[in-house]
Amino acid sequence: MMITTFYLPTKIIFGPGSSARLGTEAAKLGCKAILVTGRSSLRKTGILGRVVRDLENNGVGILIYDRVEPNPRASTVDEGARLVREGGIDLVIGIGGGSAMDAAKGIVIAGSGTRPIWHYIENKVEIKGSVPRLILVPTVAASGSEANNGAVITNWQTHEKCVFSSSHTYPRVSIVDPDLTLTLPVKPTMQGGVDIFCHLVEPYITAKNPAPLTDAIVEATLRLVVNYLPRTLAKPDDIYARSQLSWASTIACSPFTSLGGGDGAMTLHGIEHPLSGYYDIAHGDGLAALLPAWIRYTYPVRKDRFEALGSNVFGRPDGIAATEEWLEMIGMRLRLGELGIESGRIREMAACALKTAPWLKNHPNKLDIKTTARIYRDCY
Ligand code: NZQ
Ligand code: ZN
Fold this sequence. Notes:
The structure is a single chain. Helix content is 50%, strand content 12%. By secondary structure, it is α/β, with parallel strands linked by helices. Helix 10 (267-279) crosses helix 14.
């Protein structure tokens, strides 16, 4: 049996109203913070005002950096990093969806170095010396960035959307307050739910060495998404349903899903990233469009896993039909054509996927430019 290492040096504070603890937690970690967030939602929802007052009341100085776009650009990270270097910042607080939290991770790295973030991503260079501490506060149940050290940054010149991680990008503290997700409209809520579903189903299906404890954790978390996302669609202010989605989000893309020794790879993610890298579509939309074709391509070599998915998650043996009907029910049965993807760039994106996602080689049947392009075409 493989040796598994479980490592997550993050204090996770979870629960409705827990964001009121941000000021006290921040005051323990730093004196001057940069607040990294998206361009409008935090201000519009009033969350920003509340957070700023709380930090000031706890004696933490603040610089607001509300410039992060969805699918965060390397250039946006570099601008934030410049503010860290010039502003004597010792604490980075990422508050928002996965885009803001990932940009905050990039700003920790580039803000401590002298080079643009892409240099560290491309050359996998670790930062030496001291780096600012990191606190993350998700306002979307989706990426799970709050419980891992990974970040996805886009180079808008090359359209490469790359995942990077560092020992410095584990948050010291993550505050997961489902109340903050109540203002999220239905569409990004559904996109986030599909993202969580894929974080779980991809390693579950592709696992070469499935393990009982890992399967139990993943199946239980999948049932949370499958049952509570439609409930949230029906009643968006249902805080109990939102809380189950927040738990699923925090677990799904974290080391918790490798407990028990199970393995597996996020190969659908590797195929999706060029879509949002080239066309700036929502990550969850790209995944939803690709999922049926990825399933059909993988089924011949993973029949048993799809039956287990059906029986243990949907309560019926045909996991494929159950997944497609679930996507239909939440309004996420999508096609690449309707998302604005140009068929003429499919081969180019397939090559980009192979370059930016080397873990595609861990897929149970061959993923090369030809088969990856076929998956894109199958859901065009
Ligand atoms: O940008 P603002 O103005 O903040 O508005 C956002 C954005 O338009 C809005 N929003 C966020 N919280 C809100 C809200 N609107 C109302 N009320 C709130 N409480 O929602 C929109 C989507 O936000 P975004 O951060 O882009 O969405 P998500 O959380 O789905 O993150 C997507 C990003 O995460 C990356 C994706 O690649 C993508 O760049 N991922 C990061 C991962 C990781 N670090 O582990 C793993 C994931 O697989 C994913 O790839
Ligand atoms: Zn994802």
